[in-house]
Amino acid sequence: MGGLDGKVAIVTGGSLGIGAGIVRRLARDGAAVTLDYHTHRDAADGIAQEITAAGGKALVLQADVSRVADIAGLVTQTARRFGRVDILVNNAGIEEPASFLDVAEDAFDRQMAVDLKGAYFAAQAAAKQMIAQGGGGVIVNISSVHEELPMVGNAVYCAAKGGLRMLTRTLATELAPHGIRIVNVGPGAVATPINAATLNDPQKQQALLGEIPLGRIAQPEDIAAAVA
Fold it and tell me: What positions carry a catalytic annotation?
């Protein structure tokens, strides 16, 4: 096993893309992992079966991270199954690109609820559990380069990620006395379904590659390594 033996992790949005890569890596490193899914139950079950077949521990739970009650359930059910929570990875996120002038209130609320509110209250629930059990913990927020880098046509997403960056800094200060570390991992372009439109357009892909010093699009495993 690896350096996370005996640790218990929760990964929101753990059935696809970056989240799936993180789940697999944390499990490979020895952690028991709860992977939350919103829609893709089959994908989540498949990852859990991979983990258990390799001798690891995995729990699949359905949750909508925009609902505080669902978030609380992730933490309580994980603690009930595995005895504690040591790591939270706030990975669940959505984006709905649109011109700033055309964004409707429901689209704004939907993205903020998942990308910022969800991370806020998941961190709160996990921190309460970590404080109650003792021993500290780690909360990793999967942010984006767009916490810092503007993206025309995606103002809501950028605002949410900018908020997540400041949330991370504030919680790092507030929760440090409890031994809880807060970390932002801010990926650039990653080869996941959320970027399919760009990756399937040769012209857009070449323009994107021109902005990346390594000259390649990241894979979920790259982000998972940073988290681990």
Answer: 157
